[in-house]
Specification:
CATH architecture: Beta Barrel
CATH class: Mainly Beta
Number of strands: 9
Number of helices: 4
Number of domains: 1
CATH superfamily: RNA polymerase II/Efflux pump adaptor protein, barrel-sandwich hybrid domain
Distance between the termini: 18 Å
Strand order of the largest sheet: 1-2-3-9-8-5
Length: about 120
Amino acid sequence: MKYTEEHDWLRVDGDVVIVGITEHATEQLGDVVFVELPEPGTQVSHGDEVVVIESVKAASGISAMYDGEIVAVNDALVDAPNLVNEDPTGAAWFFKIKLADMAVLDGLMDEAAYKDMIA
């Protein structure tokens, strides 16, 4: 897995990348009560807000750190946003994206660097 400074995780699965938020992010947010996902087929560019997350503490979002096309979303989160708190790095992935350039992942943190950042 790779990690961003914004507490997103990215896991490569063939030619797509699965994106979610880290356990640390969910602890900061508190209980997630609403998730708004993009439509499959959406083209995103670096800086675009892709996901909206609302919790009892705050509203937050996932902004793209990359260019690409959303190829799938986790519709289960719409009906059960609490999955984000229960299994943030597993069942609670937000979307799958086909990146315009997979090399963008090279600039992200590995798990050890991410753990150092949040320590």
